[in-house]
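Ticket #4471: structure output looks truncated?

Reporter: J.K.
Steps to reproduce: submitted the chain below (702 residues) through the standard prediction queue, then opened the result file.
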Amino acid sequence: MIGVLLREQVRGQSRLLTWTAGLLAVGASLAATALIAASSQAVLDANPSYGAPEGMDRAALVTEWSDGPPADQDVTDATVASPGDIAAAIDEALEAGFPAHATQTHYLEWERVGGGARDDLPYMGDAIASYVDASSAIIEGRSPNEGEIAIAGDVAADLGLHIGDTVVATSAIGTDAKSAAPLTLEVSGLAIASSTQPFRTASVDAYLSWEDGIVLSEASAAQPAQDGGTTKALHAEVSWKDGAPGMEELASRDDAPLVPFDPRDGFRIPLEGWTGTLWIAALFASVGTVMASVAMGRVQAPSRARWIATARVLGATSRTLRNVAALEAVFMGIVSAAAGLCVGWLVNAAVLAWQRHAQPDAVLPLTPAVLPIAAAIVVAMTVLVASLTAIGPAVWASRTAPIAALKPGALATATPLATTPPARERGALRAHHVGGGPLALAVAGAVILVAVGSAWGGYLGPWIAGAGVVAFGVFGMALLATLADSTLTAIARRWARRTHPGPLTAAHDLLARSRQYATATLIYALACAALAGVLGHGVHALASAGATPGASTSSFGDMFTANDGRGWPSWGALGVIVVFLIIAAVIACAVVASTRIAAGDESAVHTALGLSPSAHRTSASLEFGLPLAIGATLGPLSGWAFVAVVSAPQGASLGAWSAATLLTFPGALLVAVCALAVAAGAAGVSGGLSRQVAPSSATPSR
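Returned output as attached by the reporter:
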């Protein structure tokens, strides 16, 4: 029975479920793209390409002293070896057929002999001196012998180096580094390059021979030797297969199992960079989907209540209906998650293909990786949001008794052209119970709390300021919802006095279902406020620190601000802003579209009374565009105000805070301009795609 009821409910609520599933797929796609990127990065991190052979399961950090152990044995926690012990042990293991490997890590500076593309300063980077041939890391040429160096492809291109060129290298670390004789090395090959964003690999800048690494170690700081002289250290990371002969002397207290790096250990939910932006957008899309589904569920409540009443009359119990609703949410969540995972995989595959083309010397995977934990997060998040979206329609449908729902015409929507627009309903959680005036006073009180806490100092100051910030956020959001609703209603009432049929029809629809249109306004306003807040917070932090916006070395500042001293976002951030606004506009337009579809019989009445196609398109454009335009105006101002209040540093002067706050306004203004442009585009497209409902095809709202 549950299967039959589920099939009939999906058939009867196809429009609502289609819109909801589409919105869920958007959020799932954003989250899946971010999490699959994190999975691929974790797999990359688990396979560093340092030219080391495979099959080893033991490791130790070994310090080999040039002239016997020092007098103070506590200078190192590593295994202590005599000169030549590492090489002798590895040779013995290799001769017995056991894999073994040793590397030294050096930080060098080098420059090309005879001049080159970077003659202003020596290049500084990491270099690996390997005892075993590192040919697996070489992409052109050969592995370096004594007196040679293999340089990463990207570094060689930056320095203008080619195979056969000569460089002079010195150690950049150590007390005696500057006084040590430099090494003259010939470039024997080009090694794999390091890749940068969006996918990163941890390749080193250069490879050296083991003998040259020993020479560089002579530039390290001297330690007192047991014979009264001095000794210098060679630090090496040694790995081998368990049971290899000759390695017993290296297996001391620092000896440990060499556990392969598990990609699941490196997987982290992304909170920075492009993946972090996608993840934040996915969370916003999820919240917006819940809000949109509640609004769409309200206009779909009559048909759902009628369906539930019919099922109850036919013998379905409340428990059965709850199970049907749960199965509907789970099914919709799984389907949306599967679609999101497919989209996320394709996006990451495209990004990897582009990056391989842009950085051919970097070793990048051919296909993205999908860790089970990433897929599980996407499915769990989507099913959770789907379950939350099912609450709204269920609540609205449950408010009608079955006998009333089955009464003929009881739930039919009154024709708005024949009646006065219905009075505005006031739910228990509506901000209208409080009113705009009291909410404004509450917001002003929160600002005073923040100001008092910032100037108070001591132990209570931060707590008072924090309470003010929380109060400002709560009451500010309620005030934003009230302003959005009131502004929408005021403009619609002005349009209702117009004689042009397009604005007049739009005004009647806006007033008849103002709560649904106000929800669309709030969704878009919150998106604009979030963008203006994030952008303004970064600029405010840089300005408050006395730095020029964009001049900071922080990743946040570099990502969101340009080097023009005015607080404008960079071009990359501008693209993120536009994409984020498009996502928010899609969610808001879904609410408006569902509301208009549910009122199909009213559209048929408009057509029967002579509403022309051009007037219908004008009405549709206004109904889609007005909520977005109001959100694009109120949202950035709200975000800017929130940053101004939250960013008030404790003990800072009023002048410094005011200057930093004014510097954040251009970013908020740019968000508003972009939001209005997206709103105009969405209104034009939606109005152009809108079609009139013929009177003969009108059906009751469902």
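Triage note (M.O.): checked the attachment and the full token line is present. The CA atoms of residues 314 and 428 lie 33 Å apart.
Status: closed, working as intended.
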